[in-house]
Amino acid sequence: MLINSAVTAVKGDLSDKAKVAAAMKKADFPSIRGNFKLSNNGYPVQDFYLTKVAKRADGKFQTEIVEKVFTNYADRYAKDCAAQ
Questions:
Q1: Of 35, 47, 46, 43, residue with least CA distance to 78
Q2: What is the pLDDT of residues 33-83, one digit of tens each?
Q3: How far apart are CA 36 and CA 43, in angstroms?
């Protein structure tokens, strides 16, 4: 979806790599994770959750969120990287 959003943004013209890279950095697409963005070193910035597997009433299993561990977490080394 990220690549498709960049290709769409440059109207299919992939000849200008700088424009394609800039479009990818915008990450303009509907993500199943909610708002999606990239840190300065290109890693996703996202929420992390502690989850558990629980048995449902019908005997099947499901994943349940216990708590949100991190909000908008970026790679711990992003601060050490120059902006791309």
A1: 43
A2: 778 888 888 888 888 999 999 999 999 999 999 999 999 898 888 888 876
A3: 11
